Amino acid sequence: MYLGLFVLLIWTLTPIYWYLKLAFLTPNNINIFPPVFLPDDMHFGAFFNIFGYDYTTADNILLPASGQASQVIRGLLNSLFVSIISTIITMIVIVPLAYTFSRLTFRFKTALLLTILLSVALPPISTLIPFFAMYVKLGLTGTKFGLIIVTLTITIPFVTWMLIGYFRNIPPIEKLGRIDGYGRFETFLKVFIPVSKNGILVAAVISFIFSWNEFTYASILVNGTKAVTFPTSISSFLFQHPHPQHLSASLFLGMIPPFIVAVFLQRYISEMNIVDPLR
User: Fold this and answer.
1) Is 211 left (phi over 0), alpha (psi -120 to 50) or beta?
2) What is the pLDDT of residues 119-161, one digit of tens each?
3) What whole-number distance in Å separates Cα of residue 93 and Cα of residue 130?
4) pLDDT tens-digit map of 160-215
5) Residues whose CB is less than 8 angstroms from the CB of residue 11 and which lie 6 or more positions away in sequence, other chains included
6) DSSP code at position 197
7) Cα–Cα distance between 96 and 89 in angstroms, integer?
8) Among residues 130, 68, 90, which one has the least CA distance to residue 211?
9) Residue 56: beta bridge partners?
10) Domains of the chain by range and CATH?
11) Which residues contact 10 (CB under 8 A, 6 or more apart)?
């Protein structure tokens, strides 16, 4: 078991270490062979450069600002906006939807559940061309509104499926609300949601991470426009004059939000028990 964990850690941390190391090297040190495993003189120049600021190292080496700085800043703001709005809409839709599927009985329930499963299993690349053709006709390409809509097609099915399994694991507490004189909707708001808040919070976090990391649709629908997102703005570094330290610093910057979420919400994620939604 420990050997397996060690191999998994090496597999996971090696690429993170490698591009994080590049972020602290000057262009001259990057080209040294054999490569430097630990920088002798660490600096934060690349992190200033990607935000449009020049940086002078202790050796008086000028590191000029990145030409992609405006795209990086715009991508950060757009990704934050799209992720927050998509998460809010996703939670408004999926919480009552998951509750309906997990706690109520109605006709065609299994068929509708399988439809949600099919939506989760369908790879985004398979719907990219139809979405692009539709967005061109509707004038939604290059807009944050259009990107939010297409992001919801990913977050709603996946998080709904996950939340159905969590809701099914909660005891039948609706009877307590009925005893207190609540109707079905009041029981849902005042009894069920407070009890299931941990699972709902984790679902919101997963929805935010999915929205933040979405690249497939964004690379076609908004790349190169004012609605560019952070993942697509990072990809533009590959087509410019090679500055590995700028790309590495941007990658590390994009990893910070999921890392913060994982650290502070680890307890809630580990406590979230999920059962088979089809059971």
Assistant:
1) alpha
2) 777 787 888 888 889 989 988 888 999 999 999 988 998 888 8
3) 24
4) 888 888 888 888 887 777 777 777 788 888 888 888 888 888 888 888 888 998 88
5) none
6) H
7) 12
8) 90
9) 62
10) 2-63 (no CATH), 69-271 (1.10.3720.10)
11) none
152, 138 Cβ separation under 8 angstroms: no
Query: Phi and psi for 66 in degrees, rounded to 5?
Result: -75, 140
pTM over 0.85: no
The rounded Cα 132 to chain-centroid distance in angstroms is 22
pLDDT band at 268 (very low <50, low <70, confident <90, very high): low
Task: Using the Cα atoms of residue 11, residue 13, residue 16 and residue 17 in order, give the sign of their dihedral.
Answer: negative
What are the backbone dihedrals phi and psi of residue 32, each rounded to the nearest 5 degrees, phi first?
-70, 135
In the chain, where does DSSP find H-type helix? 2-23, 27-30, 45-49, 69-103, 109-121, 128-138, 144-167, 174-179, 184-187, 193-195, 197-213, 216-221, 230-235, 244-264, 266-271
d(CA 87, CA 82): 8
Question: Do you know the residue count of the chain?
Answer: 279
Query: Helix 144-167 vs helix 69-103: angle between axes, to the nearest 10 degrees?
Result: 40
Query: In 3-state terms, what secondary structure has residue 227?
Result: coil
Q: Which amino acid is at 270?
A: S
The kind and range of the H/E element at 63 are: strand 62-63
Instruction: Return the C-alpha torsion angle 7, 10, 11, 12, nearest 10.
Output: 120
How far apart, in Å, are the Cα atoms of 59 and each of 32, 95, 130, 191, 208? Answer: 17, 56, 54, 63, 42
